[in-house]
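Hi everyone,

Forwarding the result from last night's run.
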Amino acid sequence: MKNKEESFQLFPINVKGSAGSICNFMGSFIGWVVAYYFNFLREWRSTGTLFIVSSFCCANFILLAIMVLETK
């Protein structure tokens, strides 16, 4: 039986460092892309920009609800 700390791990111990680094890099990169292009998109059309952002938020919520396992 696993102890309490091991049962709440998102990644296995042998890939935790590299998976955490990849997730951190991708989050930072996507944040930079959004911050860089947001003003260009706002000049193009503000309602279209907000629709794109809200579409990605809804898609993220659906993927989260389907793919992420429940941790108790």
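The longest helix spans residues 16-44.

Cheers,
N.
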